[in-house]
């Protein structure tokens, strides 16, 4: 919970935090003209021309694209913009070592340490933090673990999606970095509380089915959870923006996992929830999965709305050649995969996801014991 929020029971990894509300990544090496990815939506090719940078090669390529579309002045449009295969969004998951600064990653490490320390002191530690009081207050609303689980997810979803919706106004008011800090400062505590409650009460519900002893179920759940993390972690496209070391941006990604689905975090969340609900098989898991999937389905609508507002026609073109349902645009011919499509996944961010997912799986006992100590 864009994005993604729960820790699972063994054998599969925990649910990552964060939403697919315009995730971040490094500037691609090849992209459409800057006017197409401007924060201010431009509604016509004539207006696009005004905002072009005075780079001759860029100008000529752009004019060529307009002419091939049949949108020159006085000429009717003879070709749908969606059929233009030239990338209009950004190349996702690009990581160029030559452009990295050691100082930026030093800052990132320092900020991460400070955030984790503050989160522990102000929220997690029962002797100093407010987390225990928060969970206890919510727990007093009902004797049902399913109801409490649902309420915690609703609180997180409201905070997370609400602040994402207010991002444009918030960034204008206080700046991109300050708003990112505020966003994380409010979202992280509610995410941690939801995760811990799920871990501690995941087996307290009514058992609906029991298939853990069935041959092949463990492997199915493990593989499904592993795959889900490649959809769930678009934020790793640029960790420096996530930590506000680089100025956070709302990106219009188009390559890599985005060719399969325009909303990978929603797809990953659905896969994760189905796998874990199958494994646990009780009413608490069902309640958690229903809440998380509903939150991410709302994120599909909200994410498209925000991108359309920010990018205008550029997003409409991208939407016309991508799909929410995985592989749908590929199967119906709207998305043309390049011959070397696999190379879009042989990149450091995806390798990082692989190691983090394996690490989370093997760290399950540690995460569970830490959560149990909180008594949430």
From TrEMBL:
It comes from the Eukaryota. One of its GO terms (cellular component) is chloroplast. The keyword Isomerase applies. GO terms for molecular function: 9,15,9'-tri-cis-zeta-carotene isomerase activity. It is a multi-pass membrane protein. The keyword Transcription regulation does not apply. Its main location: membrane. Residues 149-367 form the NnrU domain. Keywords: Isomerase, Membrane, Transmembrane, Transmembrane helix. InterPro entries: NnrU_dom. GO terms for biological process: carotene biosynthetic process. This is 15-cis-zeta-carotene isomerase, chloroplastic. It comes from Phoenix dactylifera (Date palm). The gene is LOC103722002.
């Amino acid at each position: 919970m864009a994005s993604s929020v729960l820790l699972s029971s063994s054998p599969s990894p925990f649910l990552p935090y964060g939403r697919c509300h315009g995730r971040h990544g490094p500037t691609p090496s090849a992209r459409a003209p800057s006017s197409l990815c401007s924060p201010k939506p431009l509604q016509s090719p004539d207006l696009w021309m005004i905002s072009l940078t005075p780079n001759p090669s860029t100008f000529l390529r752009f004019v060529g694209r307009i002419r091939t579309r049949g949108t020159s002045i006085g000429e009717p449009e003879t070709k749908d913009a969606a059929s233009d295969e030239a990338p209009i969004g950004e190349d996702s998951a690009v990581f160029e070592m030559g452009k990295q600064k050691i100082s930026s990653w030093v800052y990132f490490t320092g900020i991460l340490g400070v955030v984790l320390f503050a989160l522990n002191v102000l929220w997690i530690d029962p002797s100093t933090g407010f987390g225990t009081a928060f969970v206890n207050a919510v727990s007093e609303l009902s004797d049902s673990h399913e109801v409490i689980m649902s309420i915690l997810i609703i609180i997180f979803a409201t905070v997370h999606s609400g602040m994402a919706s207010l991002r444009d106004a918030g960034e204008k008011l206080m700046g991109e970095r300050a708003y990112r800090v505020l966003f994380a400062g409010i979202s992280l505590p509610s995410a941690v509380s939801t995760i811990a409650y799920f871990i501690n009460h995941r087996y307290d519900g009514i058992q609906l089915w029991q298939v853990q002893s069935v041959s092949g179920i463990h492997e199915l759940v493990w593989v499904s959870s592993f795959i889900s993390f490649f959809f769930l972690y678009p934020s790793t496209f640029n960790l420096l923006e996530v930590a506000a070391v680089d100025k956070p941006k709302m990106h219009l990604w188009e390559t890599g996992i985005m060719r399969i689905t325009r909303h990978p975090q929603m797809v990953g969340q659905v896969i994760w929830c189905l796998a874990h609900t199958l494994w646990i098989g009780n009413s608490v898991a069902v309640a958690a999965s229903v809440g998380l999937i509903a939150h991410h389905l709302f994120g599909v609508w909200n994410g498209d709305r925000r991108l359309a507002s920010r990018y205008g026609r550029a997003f409409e073109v991208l939407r016309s050649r991508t799909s929410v349902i995985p592989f749908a645009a590929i199967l119906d011919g709207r998305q043309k995969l390049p011959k070397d499509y696999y190379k879009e996944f042989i990149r450091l961010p995806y390798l990082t996801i692989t190691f983090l997912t394996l690490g989370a799986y093997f760290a399950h006992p540690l995460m569970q014991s830490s959560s149990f100590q909180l008594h949430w």
